Amino acid sequence: MSLLVVAGAMVLDAVTGDPRRLYSRVPHPVTLMAATLNALERRMNRSGDNRSGDGARRRRWFGIGALGLYLFGWTVVAVAIDLFLVGPLGAMVLIVFASTLLAGRDLIDHVAAVADALTGDDLEPARDAVGRIVGRETALMDRSAIVRAATESLAENLSDGFVAPLFWFALGGFPALVAYKAINTADSLIGHRDDRYRAFGWAAARTDDLANWVPARLTAALLAALAAIEGRGAEAWRTARRDARRHLSPNAGWPEAAMAGAVGIRLGGPRRYGALAVDGAWFGDGRESADIDDLRIALRLARRVWIGLILAAVALALVTH
């Protein structure tokens, strides 16, 4: 994979994000991935009682099979595209395709919208804005809870939505990028712990854990390195190493704890997902109260990671070519 293609995709994502007009007319690649997996899930997630031993085992095996078919199909499509798109024109088309699978610009824009909504006294616009990027209940959130939720989403999705796809793109080219996005989409759709997906989505959740193991720790290291500009780098890394293991996910705790240490606030804690209350662990030794200035600090740090990686990719591409 040419570094020029990687750098070009990063730059295009930074400039355009996901154009809404385009995707109001044609389906986004992730939407197509979700549609294929949903079709498989409807056909294959029917194998008996999910709560009994035999039923759960059957569902788990069917889930493994569905994930295998889904990943094989999308990887074949990606390899075919990669082989077909040759020459300068092919590279340009590949840059466009790859940019749709990097979510750096959209992540920054969505979290910045939460910060903008917090400038007024009415919290409803901010609750609405943060509700677009988190799955938890937002109706009763106060200002601190909104800031913490947006900051956690920013940290986790900086890893899942930008660093991780970029890592696999640079490592294995366009097919690896597509495979990663397919895995991450599968985890979002079926990697849940409820009765319907606990067994069937087991393989999707575990595969996503493996795919994000290195990128999550890399994101934490990048956040800590760039937090050193404000003298918070050591605290960010210390918090990540100490508190990441407290998260229910083996990976999400790394960027979230690093961000908590970098900003100087506590993240995590109790939250609600509909009727389900989760007594989550806290990350960091900072303030539990948080305000718009803390979210702006987090945004500034995430932008440094985002722009820094883009500049590094462009510089490497120019040097090697």
Describe the structure.
It is a single chain. The protein has twelve helices and two strands, in the order αααααααααααββα. By secondary structure, it is mainly α. A two-stranded antiparallel ribbon has the order 1-2. Helix 4 crosses helix 8 (143-190), helix 6 packs antiparallel against helix 12 and helix 8 (143-190) crosses helix 9. The longest helix has 48 residues, at 143-190. The radius of gyration is 20 Å and the shape is globular.
Give the key terms.
321 residues; mainly alpha; 12 helices; globular
List the helices and strands and how they pair.
Blueprint: H1 3-16, H2 20-23, H3 29-44, H4 53-84, H5 87-99, H6 104-117, H7 124-131, H8 143-190, H9 202-227, H10 233-243, H11 253-263, E1 267-273, E2 276-283, H12 292-320
Antiparallel strand pairs: 1-2
Helix pairs in contact: 1-5, 1-12, 3-4, 3-8, 4-8, 6-7, 6-8, 6-12, 8-9, 8-11, 8-12, 9-10, 9-11, 9-12, 10-11
Q: What count of structural domains? A: 1
Amino-to-carboxy terminus distance? 13 Å
Number of strands: 2
Q: SSE order in H/E notation?
A: HHHHHHHHHHHEEH
**In terms of structural class, how would the helical and strand content be classed?**
mainly alpha
Largest sheet: 2 strands, antiparallel
Q: What is the mean pLDDT?
A: 93
**Assembly form of the protein:** single chain
Number of helices: 12
Strand order of the largest sheet: 1-2
Radius of gyration from the CA trace?
A: 20 Å
